[in-house]
Amino acid sequence: MLNSDAGGAIMKPRISMVTLGVSDLKRSVAFYERGLGLPRMESPPEVAFFTLNGTWLGLYGREALAADASVVGGTSGFAGFSLAHNVSSEQEVDHVMAQAASAGAVVTKPAQKTSWGGYAGYFADPDGYLWEIAHNPLFWVGPSDEPA
């Protein structure tokens, strides 16, 4: 492991932004901004940024994102990851799941009790990115919702 004493960089334990490569930027902006109510920042027309509590969400054309990362674009089904949004109650899980569905999300797993003692469900956004909406009664996950 590199450390600052050895002259190497230290990666801080945080994710600054999650950028999703989307097939239709206008449709995805509408889903996240109007459908889910995320606060959109001013940005150039080829990208959209949303401020989240402690991080940002970016939306960028799928092929443009692949080119930016110097990888081959295209789709291959399940991306191998999901995004999670934790809330403070089972009722909030149900509310967010209903909000997402009414905004055009596909519910892939209805909210239900989990094997780990929580309550969670999954939906897919317009590009198929999976979001888990969860209530963890054992401990809070993520930054506080309380104003600083």
What is the count of helical runs?
A: 3
Adjacency order of strands in the biggest sheet: 1-4-3-2
Helix-strand sequence:
EHEEEHEHEEE
The largest sheet is:
4 strands, mixed
**Number of distinct beta strands:** 8
Radius of gyration: 17 Å
Would you identify the regions where 5 or more consecutive residues have pLDDT less than 50?
none
Distance between the termini: 34 Å
Topology:
Elements: E1 17-22, H1 25-35, E2 40-41, E3 47-51, E4 56-61, H2 62-68, E5 83-87, H3 90-102, E6 106-113, E7 119-124, E8 130-135
Parallel strand pairs: 1-4, 5-8
Antiparallel strand pairs: 2-3, 3-4, 6-7, 7-8
Describe it for me?
- Helices cover 21% and strands 30% of the residues.
- With 148 residues, the chain is of the alpha/beta class.
- It has a four-stranded mixed sheet with strand order 1-4-3-2. It has a four-stranded mixed sheet with strand order 5-8-7-6, covered by helices on one side.
- The longest helix is centred in the middle third of the chain and has 13 residues, at 90-102.
- The mean pLDDT is 87.
Features:
148 residues; alpha/beta; four-stranded mixed sheet; 3 helices; globular
